[in-house]
Each structure stands twice: as C-alpha cells, then as structure tokens.
Amino acid sequence: MTGFDPLAAVLWLPLGAAAVLAALPGYVLPARLNVLACLASLVCAVSLFWHRPPAGDYLMVDDLNVVFIVLNTFVGFTTATFSASYIAHELQTGRLTLGFLRFYHAMYQVMMFGMNLALVANNIGLMWVAVELATLTTVVMVGIYRTPAAIEAAWKYFILGSVGIALALFGTILVYLAAQPVLGEGTGSMVWTVLITRAASFDPELLNVAFVFLLLGYGTKVGLAPLHAWLPDAHAEGPTPISAVLSGLLLNVALYALLRFKMLLAANPQALAPGPLMIGLGLLSLIFAGLMLYRRVDIKRLFAYSSIEHMGIIVFAFGVAGPLGNFAGLLQMTMHSLTKSAIFFTVGHITQAKGTQKLADMGGLTETHPVLGWTLVAGVIAIAGLPPFGVFMSEFLLVSSTFARQPVLAAAVVAGLLIAFGALLVQITPVTFGPPRGRNARVHASTLPIFAHLALVLLGGIYLPPALVAWFQHVAALLG
Amino acid sequence: MHGLAFDIAHMLAGALVLLSLMMLYQDRLYALINVLALHALVLAMSVAWQAWVHDAPHLYITAGIALVFKAIVIPMALRRMVFQLRIHREIERVVGSGLTMLAAIALVALSLEVMLPVTEGVDPVSREDIALALSVVLIGLLMMVTRHNAVSQVAGFMSLENGIVLAATGAQGMPLVVEISVAFSVLIAFIVIGIFLFRIRERFDTVDVEALDKFRGERR
After folding, report:
1. pTM to 2 decimal places
2. Which of A81, A199, A231, B1 sits 20 to 30 Å CA-CA off B54?
3. Residue A17 belongs to a domain
C-alpha cells in the first residue's frame, strides 16, 4: 500500500467530485457520478480498517472515528442512490430546475467533504471549521426549493446554527487557553491526540466553562431541546435526501465533536463530571420531543421530532456513561442513523406519490403502495424500539444499565420512550392501514437503499458479530 | 506584559464592549451600520496592538481582514442593500431600549463574573480579553433576539463574530489556521446571508423576519 493514502482519498474524492459536478450539465450523468463518487469514498473509508495512517497534526484515524467515517460514507452512498431517483421526479414536477440540480450535486459532495473532515480532524480548530462548512452547505440545500417556507426554514437554521457554532468556537478557544500553560503556544495545543494525554494537568475550572460552551454550541447542531428550533423546519422544507443526511449524519457528526470534548473532560479528574448535564439535556429532549410528536401534522416534521427524541436518548446514554451506557449510546447512534435515513427515503417517495406532506391527506398506504407502505411500517417499528430491530437492543441495554444504577432515571427514560412510541402508533396507523386517502400517483421508487438499511438494522437486532461487539466495548471503555 | 501596553489593550477591548452597547439602542439602520463599522475598526486596532505587543506578525493579517473586510466592505454593502431595499426607516424592537440596555449590563457583569475567577492562571491580557470578549458575544446574541429586522440581525451576528475574534487573538499563540478560518467563515457567512436577504426581498416586500414567520409549516 505505498503511494495510496485512503485517508487523503476520503477527503479529496468528494472535493474533486464537487468540482466536476459543478461543471457538468444535465442530470442523468451527474446523478450517477454522484453515486459513484460516494461509492469510491466508501471503499476508501472501509480500507481505513486495514491501512491506518499515523495521526498527524491535522488528521487522524483512531478506533472511535473509523466506524463513524464508514457509517458516514455508507449512508452518503445510499442517500446518493436514493437521491438519483428522487430528483428525477422533482425535475418532472418542475420543483427543481437543471441549474439548481447542478448546484445541488456539487453541494452534496462539499457537504460529504465537510462531514468526513470533521470526523478525521485531529485539530479541534480544524474540526470546528469542518462542522461549520457542513452546516453552511446544508443551509443552502435546505433553501433550494425557494418557496417561502423553505427560505424561512433555511434562514432560521442559518441563524441558530451560526450562533451555536459561534459558541462552540468560544468553547474551543477556552480549551486552547486551558492547554496553553501546559503545552506551550502554537499548533500542539490544539491537537487532540496531544491534548488527551495531558488533559489531567489542565486547569479544571477553565475546562468546565469550556465544556458548557461546547455543549451549548455543538448541542444546537445536535438538536437538543431547548436549542432544537431549527431542526424540524430544516428537515421538512428541504429536499428529502437532505433530510436523510441531516438526521442520519450531520447530527451524528456534531455529537461526535461533543464526545471528543467529553473525553477530554473525563481525562481530567478534577473537572466537573459532564454526566449530569448531558443526562438533563438528553432527558429533556426525549420527553419534550415525545410529547411534540402527538401534535405534528406533517410527516417529515414528525420524523424530525423523532430524531430530536433519539438524539436525547443518545446524549442521555453517554451521560450515564460507564461501559454499558457508552456501548448503548454508540449502538443507538449507528442504528438510529441507518433507520432514520431509511424512513426518510420511504417518506420521500410517499410524499411524491401523495403530492403532499400532510399526514391527514395520506391513508391506507399498505393497500395503494404495498412496498412503500410496508417498508414504512417496518421502519416505524424499528425506530419505535420494538424487537427484533437493532434500536430495541440499544434501548434495552440503556434502560437496564440505567436501572442498575439509578432506577428513577430509568423510569423517566421508559416513560419518554413510551410517550414517543404511543405517538408514532397514533400518527402512523391511519397513514399505513386506514382507508386509502388522497392522491395515488405511481412513483418510480428506488427500494434498494431502504432494504439495505433495514436489513442492517434487523441484523443489528438479531445478531451482532463478535468483532463488532468487541470493538464497541473497546471504544466504550475509551469514552470513560 | 505590564504598564502602558496592558492599559491600551484593556482600553481597546473595553471600547469594543461599549460599542456593542451603543449598537443596542441605534434605531436607524444607517446609524447601526456606522456603529458596526466602528466596532470592526476598534477590533482591528485591538488585534494590531496584540500583534505588536506580542510580536506575532501573523495577527496583522487578522487585523487587516477586520479592517478592510469588516470595517469597510461589509458596511458599504449593507448600506447599498438598505438603500436598494428602501428600508432606511426606524427599526422595530421587541423590548424597549432601556430594558435591553439593563439586560446587556447584566450580561457584562455575568461574563466578568464567570470568566475572571476561572482564568487566574492565564496571562492577564488574555484574561481581560476573554472576559470582555464574552460580553461582546453575549450582547451580540441579545441583539439578535431583540431585533426582528434581517439586516440588524446580521449586524448582531457580525458583532458576535468580532467578539470571538477578540477572544481568539487574545489567546496567545493560538494557531493561525483558526484566525484565517474565522475570517473566511465570516466571508462565507456573509455571502450566504446576502443571498438569503435578496431571496427574501424577491419574495416579500419586507426584510422583517416576522413576515416570514407566518409560513411556518404547522398550519392545519
């Protein structure tokens, strides 16, 4: 393996593809090229398992991020496949024009670049820049339909996202200030692999304040209540492939950034324990989003709130920490990402068939569109945390490990899960089973990505390969 | 670092906080943009002073970007925009200026209270700068929530970014990559904002963000 650096390829491929896609007219070829570029990035990402370059001043691959990179490029690839059939329909109905499509494909690759960079960054400043880049590209994608509602959503996302990201930068500066007396001036004091080895001698007070800023800043991007206001609008008004990557990937990337800083805090014995803060915010998001689910009238907003709920569960899990809590959090991150993007693929085709996103105008999907209807049922079963799917596994693990330590918290989590479960049941049953309602256009659905995701989630619920379990355990121990 | 050098750094950072407070009660857009330009100018001076005192020549670049881009180019563009959109009238506000000022003073007190005790081990200039920078950031946030006009929200965001640049340059020896990226992000942010503003203008006859609110998706 000389001369070929998969780490560089994971970054350069999307960037190069973006440049090419920005220049290509038409839509059939660019859509295919988009898929191809994502597939190539995926292959490079997978090869990182075997060929891991040493950590540098700016980039690194370690046990924590390698699986997120693979997950990121995998969902990026399946979403590109889905997007190819989705946009063909959008072109026919005239919601997008060819000019905007060129922009869309280029932006898609820039976004993949931003997210990959955030995941492999070893420098906390670089990581911040990458998250900001990914945010900005999604902002313009959310606004791409240029309807008043889309512009409103993009503006709100932009303002709230910028404020969040500004607070995160302030937190990053404070971390540097805490590191500087120990590590000296210059680049070394921002390199994560250096920081983590010396974190024990940093000023704990300063680290505490820094973490509060980072939690609020990156927490806004994760969509934690009460900082979630941008999330439902951005999910509902943008193109559905973007909703899928927002929920499935961007939230994970922001959470990953937060986890890195949590590890820094955990490495310093005098610093405040991040647990209670994360448990509080996580529980608040879980219960708040669960209650909000009942009042949704728009199917994409419904699943956006479900994402807030799941992010709440994940943050709660990492707040509980310990080997089991972290294990549950990592598994839930993976499973939620796969399940939610599968649901958004299905929902994208359903809204195209129905010509609306209103739940009230949909009904009896299992009769009119059997494939889409039943995959939606499967997806909702999975996301609601019912067996035999993987989300059940992680939620079960979380509840049982919390119960062993703090039974009251476990009761609160179970209550939140049940609230959300009830809401999904109430909202989705008439859509899938009741009498057929609304328009019934045929759509050319690409079901392969949906099935691939659901199969993986099912596999996660039935049989986790021992190698994967061992890896999760190892990383859970790293997270402290 | 001691004596005069410290006093000047302190004065410049304090002036930034004062200008942030001034921004809060400007009720005309042109006046607001003028204060914003002044804010960026003081920031540039503060950064340049840091560069000279600490002998960190790369900070002059940051100062230059603040001076040229934030104090000259963006205010000019904003003025043009305000003129073209014909919105050089008064700004509506949610809370009265008296209350907003009181809240802002409380925020300054809060940030000094939070930052000074935890930064005892840090170099005194960094310490003052970080505390004052946090006040600028918080006042910028306050401005963004109390104003409804899109242009003044942009102004609030810009002052917030200025506060962050102050913090970044105050932290001695912080790697250059971050400073340039901050400047870059402001550029990108501004382009995005500009696009959005024009799109908003295209669709509606006002840049008042409240006019957009009725398009929220949750209509039955």
Report:
1. 0.91
2. A199
3. no
